[in-house]
Write a structure and sequence with these properties.
The complex is a heterodimer. In chain A, 48% of the residues are buried. Chain A is built from five helices and 15 strands. Chain A has helices at residues 40-43, 98-119, 125-138, 185-191, 198-215; strands spanning 9-10, 16-17, 47-48, 52-57, 60-65, 69-71, 74-77, 83-87, 90-97, 145-153, 157-163, 170-171, 174-177, 223-229, 232-238. By secondary structure, chain A is of the alpha+beta class. In chain A, the strands form four sheets. In chain A, strands 3, 8, 9, 10, 11 and 12 form a six-stranded antiparallel sheet that branches. A five-stranded antiparallel sheet of chain A has the order 13-4-5-14-15, with helices on one face. A two-stranded antiparallel ribbon of chain A has the order 1-2. The model of chain B is unreliable at 1-13 (pLDDT under 50). Chain B is an alpha+beta fold. In chain B, helix 1 (65-86) packs across helix 2 (92-105). In chain B, strands 10-1-2-11-12 form a five-stranded antiparallel sheet, covered by helices on one side. In chain B, strands 5-6-7-8-9 form a five-stranded antiparallel sheet, with helices on one face. The chains are: A alpha+beta, B alpha+beta. The A-B interface holds A 47, 49, 96, 144, 146, 164-166, 177-179, 181-194, 207-208, 211-212, 214-215, 217-218, 246-248 and B 1-8, 140-141, 149-157, 159-161, 174-175, 178-179, 181-182, 213-215.
Chain lengths: 248, 216
């Protein structure tokens, strides 16, 4: 069912890279021979050590992320969009290796599209989450991907599922991920309440992400937010100088 | 979250959460009460990590318990000698400096960092951090220990300068409770010491009286 093609290109070591979507060598990520220890190129793959977050509310979900992608100490992209659409009302927030998560999201997006056509109705968020989980669990040794899947479907409304590294799947009302998430567990635990409205969720997410970005060196840039409901999708961006600020 | 490069991992951290906060008229220094071995065995459920180095100066420790006890014992002696010579209670900055000298001069061997907080006549309430390598800085509030990573966001959001004593007690209790809730090597009761011009008060909040948050 997965796309399969051979891409005859060479990596910087002069090794042939053969790329199949259904094999562990994901697109652009892993050469066939691991580079020698101390080889500088091996240490600096683009990664999204990041802060990502998703919150359920009655009628939909709010998702948010920072916008920094680093290769070592260099910020490769300071306006990254880590909120990736996998279907009309289902998004994923990506953290970990940029290449791995892009490849996984593309593959799942393809599978979901196909599944939705077969079913003749929009797919369930739980289905999308399970597809992510299956891929992340099967290739857990090769991948470095922490993903939060969130969206709206007719059966269960707004849902957030987290698929951290290793390939676990669990549904949570609030989920955070990425390196910056450690710093905001206390804030999330104390400020989350059930029954929040969409606006409260957006403000809660923006505050939490701003706090994480302030403390985590690997998170920064702008805050990207999206609200997914039955009616559709609303994306917004909070620029650096408009971020909520705290006295400390 | 268990495999990516962790920029926070600079050294061994005791299983603990400690903090000190300045408020209007004093400081509160607080910690949890758990000592653990290897993260899987709780060796002491009710250890007091708040060590009195002088009448109105306390410090709490992050790092190796053995190193910390040796350093604080030495610092206590030096401070009491110093205060006899000066015929006055020592400054909080002096206490922090003594710890800093010990930490910096022995930085190769030691693995302990400190938070020092207290009250003195010259500058009133103060909070100082002495990090593991021997850096000394003064801050309005500071957090430390393995559990502190989880409450950076909360502390940044909720701290206000010049809080009242009750607000500060609430802030400290909440912060420690949230950290205990997420860090498996922090736990037990919340110990707090309130230091003001009038004296020192030890407050203990047992586990079942800690505030509960939404998921409990």
């Amino acid at each position: 069912m997965l796309k399969c093609f051979t891409d005859n290109r060479f990596n910087t070591h002069g090794q042939r890279l053969t790329v199949h979507f259904d094999s562990p060598n994901l697109y652009g990520a892993v050469p066939e021979v691991s580079p020698a220890k101390g080889d500088p190129s091996s240490a600096h793959r683009p990664i999204n050590t990041t802060t990502i977050m998703a919150v359920e509310f009655d009628g939909g979900v709010v998702i948010g992320a920072d916008s920094r992608t680093t290769t070592g100490a260099y910020i490769a992209n300071r306006v990254t969009d880590k909120l990736t659409k996998v279907h009309e009302r289902i998004f994923c927030c990506r953290s970990g290796s940029a290449a791995d998560t892009q490849a996984i999201a593309e593959a799942v997006s393809y599978q979901l599209g196909f599944h939705s056509i077969e079913l003749d109705e929009p797919p369930l968020v739980q289905t999308a989450a399970n597809l992510f989980k299956q891929m992340c669990y099967r290739y857990r040794e090769e991948l470095m991907a922490g993903i939060i899947v969130a969206g709206w479907d007719k059966r269960k409304g707004g849902q957030v599922y987290t698929v951290p590294m290793g390939g676990m799947l669990v549904r949570q009302p609030v989920s955070v991920g990425g390196s910056g998430s450690s710093y905001i567990y206390g804030f999330i635990d104390s400020n989350y309440k059930t029954g929040m409205t969409k606006e409260e969720c957006l403000r809660f997410t923006a505050d939490a992400l701003a706090l994480a970005m302030e403390r985590d060196g690997s998170s920064g840039g702008v805050v990207r937010l999206a609200a997914i409901t039955e009616a559709g999708l609303e994306r917004s961006v909070i620029l650096g100088n408009q971020l909520p600020s705290f006295s400390a | 979250m268990d495999r990516p490069p962790n920029p926070q991992n600079t050294g061994v951290s005791t299983g603990t959460t400690i903090l000190a906060v300045k408020f209007n008229g004093g400081v509160i220094i607080g910690s949890d009460s758990r000592a653990s071995i290897g993260g899987s065995y709780v060796s002491n459920k009710m250890i007091n990590k708040l060590i009195q180095v002088h009448d109105k100066i306390f410090c709490c420790i992050a790092g190796s318990l053995a190193d910390a006890q040796a350093v604080t014992k030495m610092a206590k002696f030096q401070l009491s000698f110093h205060s006899i010579q000066m015929e006055a209670p020592p400054l909080v900055k002096a206490a922090a400096s003594v710890l800093k000298e010990l930490c910096y001069n022995n930085r190769e061997e030691l693995q302990a960092g400190f938070i020092t907080a207290g009250w003195d006549r010259k500058r009133g309430p103060q909070v100082y951090t002495v990090s593991m390598g021997g850096m000394l800085i003064s801050q309005p509030f500071t957090i430390g220990g393995s559990g502190s990573t989880f409450i950076y966001g909360y502390a940044d959001a909720k701290f206000k300068p010049d809080m009242s004593r009750e607000e500060c007690l609430q802030f400290t209790t909440n912060a420690l409770t949230l950290a205990i809730g997420r860090d498996n090597v922090s736990g037990g009761v919340v110990h707090m010491v309130v230091i003001t011009e009038d004296g020192v008060e030890h407050v203990v909040v047992p586990g079942d009286k800690l505030p509960k948050f939404h998921d409990e």
